[in-house]
Amino acid sequence: MGDISIDVSINITAIVVAAVAGFFVGGLWYSPVLFGKAWMKAADISEEQIAGGNKAKIFGLTFIFLLIMSVCLAMFLGTPEITLQSGALYGFLTGFGWIFFAFGVVALFELRSWSYILVNGGYWVVTMTLMGAILGGWK
Q1: Rounded CA gap, 62 and 47, in Å?
Q2: Which of 15, 22, 42, 75 has its CA 20 to 30 A from that of 64?
Q3: Containing H/E element for 17?
Q4: Quick check: 89 and 137 in contact, CB under 8 A?
Q5: Alpha helices in 33-95 (DSSP H)
Q6: What is the pLDDT of residue 8?
Q7: Cα(126)–Cα(119) distance, rounded to whole angstroms?
Q8: In the chain, how long is the greatest CA-to-CA distance?
Q9: Distance between CA atoms of 7 and 61, rounded to whole angstroms?
Q10: What span, in angstroms and rounded, lies between the C-alpha atoms of 53 and 109?
């Protein structure tokens, strides 16, 4: 069997910025300004439950998870021919084609509503598109 050689170049700063961007999109997406109320209703979560959550754990692990996702996406987009536009396209395809529908499958089996799928899946489509643009454009 032959060796597989992949020439991938990743930008650590772009990876961190992409993760931070996903974090901020989530903050806006799930706020009352955008879809916070719809998400709370669809997820059957009260403001009291949210207030009682361990914020350090939630936000800390969220950032770590986004950072890991950013590293993985950067590995796919780390070739010289990837641009901001193609990075955004591949980020979109990742968010829509993989994450949105994977989330949707789980939500269907959990008997969740379409608004639950659309709010949460929509976040991932927007976030991965933005992360892809950052990672593709910032070499």
Answers
A1: 19
A2: 42
A3: helix 12-29
A4: no
A5: 36-43, 47-51, 55-77, 84-93
A6: 78
A7: 11
A8: 58
A9: 30
A10: 25
Q: What is the mean pLDDT of residues 109-134?
A: 98
CA 48 → CA 40, 51, 94, 115, distances in Å? 11, 5, 34, 21
Report pTM.
0.92
Q: CA nearest 99: which of 78, 116, 120, 114?
A: 120
| Nearest-angstrom CA–CA distance, 83 and 77 | 9
Q: Give the model's pLDDT for residue 7.
A: 75
How many other C-beta atoms are found inside a 10 Å radius of the C-beta of residue 7?
Answer: 7
Please say whether the beta carbons of 112 and 120 come within 8 A.
no
Give the residue from 6, 11, 8 showing the smallest Cα distance to 131: 11
Are 136 and 86 spatial neighbours (Cβ–Cβ below 8 Å)?
A: yes
AA letter at 24 = F
State pLDDT tens for residues 55-68.
999 999 999 999 99
Among 94, 80, 79, 103, which residue's Cα sits nearest to residue 132?
94
Residues in the chain, overall count: 139
